[in-house]
Amino acid sequence: MDRVGILFVCMGNICRSPAAECVFRHYVEEAGLSDVIRIDSAGTIGYHTGDPPDHRMRHEGKARGIPISGQARQVSIRDLHEFDIILAMDKSNLQYLQELDPGTDHSHKLRLFCTYVTKFYHSEVPDPYYGGRDGFQLVMDLLEDGCRNLLNEIQSELEA
């Protein structure tokens, strides 16, 4: 594996996926691998296109020393071709991705983010949008754990 592209996907691209992008970017930069790992995020809906991440998500990232930034965009068929690993935050997002380009099989690239989470018993990253601060804290806990494990896996593959 020479260069790898990682795409994080949630529904609106204003809470979970931009936070995952920024958490993962933080770890990738710490590891000195920014030149070999491409990172982005997108949403399954275009309602928030152009918007920054939710202020509550930004607040939670800032509290942990990880700035959450970006601009929402909708996932496209092109993303399925350009990225090597595409991580959906929940089963609904995964199903959307599976149906996005039925003529081409990208199933080997599509995974639930929580397949990388080992410290928590969650199969999905819950959408914190309609809840309180504890939901955003849980999202960050899951993202920090999963992103560390994802980076460890990629580092192992790069060294092989």
Q: Which helices and strands appear, and what pairs or packs with what?
A:
Blueprint: E1 4-10, H1 16-30, E2 37-43, H2 55-63, H3 77-82, E3 85-88, H4 91-100, E4 110-112, H5 133-159
Parallel strand pairs: 1-2, 1-3, 3-4
> Strand-residue fraction?
5-15%
Helical amount: 40-55%
Oligomer: single chain
What's the CATH first level?
Alpha Beta
In CATH terms, the superfamily is Response regulator
What does this protein look like?
There is one protein chain. This protein has 160 residues and is of the alpha/beta class. Helix content is 42%, strand content 13%. The protein contains five helices and four strands; from the N terminus they run E-H-E-H-H-E-H-E-H. Helix 4 (91-100) links the parallel strand 3 (85-88) and strand 4. Helix 2 crosses helix 5 (133-159).
